Amino acid sequence: MATRLKVFNFAHPLTPVHCQRIADLAGERVEAVNMPFQIEPQYPLEPQVEALVDGLGLTPREWQTESFMFNLPSLNYGTAVLLAQLHGRSGYFPAIVRLRPAADTLPVQFEVAEVINLQAVRERARRKR
To answer: How far apart are CA 10 and CA 71, in angstroms?
Structure first.
């Protein structure tokens, strides 16, 4: 595992166990970057999400050349706009992390269920046109 994969986390904090599981699935070292996803519902959504993505501090070159993965927020509208922003900047859909409740834990704990390559999902879906 030579390269470092940035995982931008727009959801609940990722634990070291989560990061290790993501690293195992991705085959790369992981650096988790927590990004609070707070939306003011009385204001338009797009400029708020755009500002959050701008806050990642990436250059146009980094958007197109670096390795990223995202743990998406649970707010469905915000996630849709976030994915549009990410695709527009990088030119492709990103890989995402899916968490699920771990079995038999009290209080409920979450585990990494899978890494989903959204670009690959898109390409498979296009074959069904």
So the answer is: 6
